[in-house]
Write a structure and sequence with these properties.
The chain has one helix at 115-122; strands at 2-13, 15-20, 29-37, 44-47, 49-50, 57-63, 69-76, 88-99. It is mainly beta and 126 residues long. A 4-stranded antiparallel β-sheet has the order 1-8-3-4, with no helix packed on it. Strands 2-7-6-5 form a 4-stranded antiparallel β-sheet, with no helix packed on it.
Length: 126
């Protein structure tokens, strides 16, 4: 399992591109992303999903490559459309990449939409 924490990934913008150093393939992995909006500090929103005050929706796309995986985060209007672009400021972006074998089938041991529960499950500090 690898965890990445990016500070201030988006400032008055609608998209961000970053690199997951040391991750070469996400095809057989669980990729979880959470954002903390600068307006709603302390509240974590799962990606994809709605953001602070339902002002936008978020989504990510990953591109496997060598030597690392590229991640694109986009903020869209609440209805999912692109135009006009949404402008927001995010204080933090947390991405967790876990082997698919760590996902338990049947009974769920963790709510993967809950940031605090995921951090506790994988032993991550905030």
């Amino acid at each position: 399992m690898k965890a990445f924490l990016f500070s201030n990934p988006v400032t008055n913008s609608w998209n961000w591109t970053g690199t997951l150093t040391g991750v070469t393939n996400v095809d057989s992995a669980l990729v979880l992303a959470f954002i903390e909006d600068a307006t709603c500090v302390g509240l974590w929103y799962s990606v994809p999903g709605v953001g602070c005050f339902n002002n936008y929706t978020s989504r990510i796309a990953t591109s496997s490559g060598f030597p690392d995986v590229t991640v694109d985060l986009q903020l869209l209007k609440p209805d999912g459309s692109f135009t006009p672009h949404v402008s927001a400021s995010l204080s933090k972006l947390r991405i967790i990449v876990a082997p698919a074998t760590s996902v338990v089938y049947g009974k769920r041991e963790v709510d993967f939409n809950n940031y605090k529960a995921v951090c506790n499950y994988y032993g991550l500090s905030d």
